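On clarity, I found the account of how folds are encoded harder to follow than it need be. For illustration, here is how one protein appears when written out as sequence plus structure tokens:

:::
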Amino acid sequence: MPGEAMPIELVDDSVLETSLFLTALHARFGADFRGFNPLVIKRKLDEQVQRSSLANISALQGQVLRDDKLGHEVIRLLSTGHSASLNDSHLLMALRFAVVPILRSSPWPAIWIADCTHPGLVVLIAAMLKEEGQLERTQLYVTSADESFINEIPRWHIGAEDAEQLERLHLANGGHASVRGYLDADGAGFTLGAAMRASLTCHVHDLASDASFREFETVVCARPLREYGFELQQRALRIFSESLCGFGVLQIDPSSAMRTMAADFNFAPVLPGQGLYRRLPR
């Protein structure tokens, strides 16, 4: 009716807290998680609140704005995690059979591990390439929005527990030999082998703000698509589509969201149950 006030839709306090926190984090440190799924972000922030013995996310925000060390710890928390490929042995096996023929047919093949969340994925893909005779001729680009994390990947010290997990996943994904054979012994653990380090190019790239930076035969999105908000999902898929050569392969977590949006970005399913899609020619 004319003159009748429109009802105001109130925002849940926890959603508002999370939104304000991410805005402050971006303003203070430049790290942009505002396009991520707020439920995923809130769960991680709640964990940090408990570890820091604080009352709520607002209190954590006050601490982060005054403590650079804590701020970078929170950025690391939000940046890292376990990719789908580290939880499902079939994903890397599917990648091995879908990607290697493309790499062999290219004179200068390149793979992009986008938004890397765990260095173990880099080791597993590099070991796969080594066994298929492609590591020395393939450039492996690894990116993350977290500069400190991305700089640590070539120097990652792999402890006994991590080495055991990598060994188990490598063999489960069709590995022909021990993954330890592709690593260098370092005291009680291991570091990336010389061939792995030589193939790596690690640099900062933020899917929320940065564009495609070269053409690839393969893109592996390390972070599950569901951790992005809808607009960031679309932006990421557009960047991946722009980055892949004709018939190049994208591997992303096998989610229903990707199956719905694939055609919008010129992707055709190869093995959608394993998150594999082929970029149709432009």
Notes: The chain has two domains: 13-79, 84-279. Residues 6-10 have pLDDT under 50 and may be disordered.
